[in-house]
Amino acid sequence: MNTQQQLIECVPNFSEGVNLNIIKQITDTIEQVEGVRLLNVDPGKATNRTVVTFVGHPKAVIDAAFLAIKKASELIDMTKHKGEHPRMGATDVCPLIPISGITMEETAKYAQQLAKRVGEELNIPTYLYEHAQPKAERKNLSIIRNGEYEGFFKKIKLPEWKPDFGPSEFPAHCGATVIGARDFLVAYNINLNTTSVRRANAIAFDVRETGRVKREGNPITGKIVNDEKGNPVYIPGKLKAVKAIGWFIEEYGVAQISMNLVNTQITPVHIAFDEVCKSAEERGIRVTGSELVGLIPLQSLTEAGKYFLKKQKRSIGVSEKELIKIAIKSLGLDELGPFKPEERIIEYILRDPAQSKLQNLTLKAFADETASESPAPGGGSIAAYVGALGVSLGTMVANLSSHKPGWDERWEEFSHWAEKGAKLQQELLKLVDEDTIAFNKIMAAFGLPKGNDEEKKIRTAAIGAATRYAIEIPMKVLSLSTETLDVIKAMAKEGNPNSVTDAGVGALCARTAVKGAYLNVRVNAATYNDKKFVEEVLEKGKQLEAKAEALEKEILAIVDEKLKHE
Fold first, then answer.
1. What mean pLDDT comes out for the span 486-512?
2. Is 85 among the residues known to form the active site?
3. Which is catalytic among the residues 42, 63, 85, 206?
């Protein structure tokens, strides 16, 4: 059973990318539903298609999707629709994607509920796909959509293509729709320095999983080879979990490879990009950049950044912001227009500003906030910040060492330490805010009413839970800060000798963070009534404090020894 808040994402594709007034009316219906947050609206003129992304509680998402499909069926006239992208209806496709606290099976059931409502209440022929479709032969979206809008007047009459819900008559005005449940999909287009759709398709066939039809003799004009059942035989492409076609985008005056990366764990964005580059080059064509349609997970861009840095034999232990910058430039995501990470990365859109309030302050503003009358941020947040500063120094030494002239063969060794340091720094920075949030939870719990017995019971439980949390957060700071000393020691010993004193200062910071965090653990543990938990935490804290002090002495001894030989 899931105790986490249930969230699903919905990414309907509407067959209108030119008339912004129509798009606005559709998205307005989505935003009117309580419990739903509109994340992104991405219209495309050449495709005459808009990809909308919103997220929320399952019931709210279903209601919002239904209203949006209804509005689209009223406003979009498919008899007049022209566009580069395959389509079969006003709401061409409407996938649901599990985000948190919900399984794919549960999400598929919600997709089936939505499809039933659309078919029965709106009289729109509706097909299920992917995980929501029980019939194996009808799971694939491209197979369902084959023939497109123009071909569906006849296709819908075939017994094997009877809609899952709704009438078996194809309504000319709004067409049909496909609703399903799927994994997170990255819609991604790669730009070419050609106007040839035929050549773009050849590259798409090289890389997409299904590949190309096998032919006798000439690979373009030769007779198609069929299997024993009379179906075409395909030569597989290079990339798994990738769908791709080539098309010409009049708006930009170039051909593109339009890709759906249906599982970025199998084929990440950067691998898809590089494979298209290789295939294009073999055909005398250059990739000039790429375009993201809709949103992308943070990991896809940070992994891309690391991939391209490794190709340059440079350290990957840099900030998240720098990794994203490298990814954008390497993939050419800003070729056709500005790429704003805060508007395109799903985690950035969903993040709670309260979770990074202190991190986002200037150095002076943070100091001023600490010095103010407010009791938070206090010692716990400062301990976490000092720990982050300490490991930042160790990471700096690792990066300087990775790029030190004459040490080129050791770049990977130092990159490993820099990556570890950068990860610890990020975790400690999060705890700067988390410690203040923990303090505020205690204050909120003490502020609860304590009138009758039931209220007293609720208040006591809330205070206990908040106190335990206020112990666990500085324990994380204590543990992570102790771990940072391994990075700092390695850099004092093996790193660029010109930066050895930076490693020394880093060690002093880390030790301070450990001792400061342990003070917070002790003061909060003093009022917590779970004696066994308190004993275990205090013992572990004492051990980590001793370990940190020993490591600090070792590091400072290394620094002193190196300074003697300067």
1. 97
2. yes
3. 85
